[in-house]
């Protein structure tokens, strides 16, 4: 299971990182602010933006610091996954891979270009322009969280089953007798 999970992580992270870097390289050839395509169904368009901060203009011109933070978070996530790889479910593994690839993709932009290439611009709401890496981080976090909830529920169910199995045969027989008499009182000693 550990090997499978690490292979899935590596595959998903590689594919997402390649898709992110390829789309950014393509869109970064256009002039900043230009609408490259769209709008599509009134939902989004492709418009180039170069981001030196974080979403909504937070931490403007903090490109290097945000890149370092991305690398640190990605390193911690990878270490966490290696530590839990044996018992991680597929949602957790894919979620961590997407967050990892997105974080590394944006960090590469920050270190090599001095900005992050964003190009997906929503037209139906006021929302920061984003990219494939950002989609990976957001969706990956949600997927990882849902996978953790599923694992916790499975562990809770397993603990409850184990507790019931620890009840001795006398407890099970008494429970069956109570159920048969229907009055909730234990049967008289025989």
Task: Throw out a few tags for this protein.
11% strand; mainly alpha; 3-stranded antiparallel beta sheet; 190 residues
Mean pLDDT across every amino acid position: 84
N-to-C CA distance: 52 Å
How big a fraction of the residues is strand?
Answer: 5-15%
Structural class: mainly alpha
Count the strands? 3
User: What number of structural domains do the residues give?
Assistant: 1
Helical proportion? 55-70%
Flag low-confidence runs. Answer: none
The secondary-structure element order is HEEHHEHH
Tell me what the structure shows.
- The structure is a single chain.
- The chain is mainly α and 190 residues long.
- It has one domain (2-163).
- It has helices at residues 2-27, 63-84, 90-112, 132-166, 169-181, and strands spanning 35-40, 44-51, 116-122.
- A 3-stranded antiparallel sheet has the order 1-2-3.
- It is elongated.
Produce the secondary structure layout.
Elements: H1 2-27, E1 35-40, E2 44-51, H2 63-84, H3 90-112, E3 116-122, H4 132-166, H5 169-181
Antiparallel strand pairs: 1-2, 2-3
Helix pairs in contact: 1-3, 2-3, 3-4
Gist?
By secondary structure, this protein is mainly α. The chain contains 5 helices and 3 strands. Helix 1 (2-27) packs parallel to helix 3 (90-112).
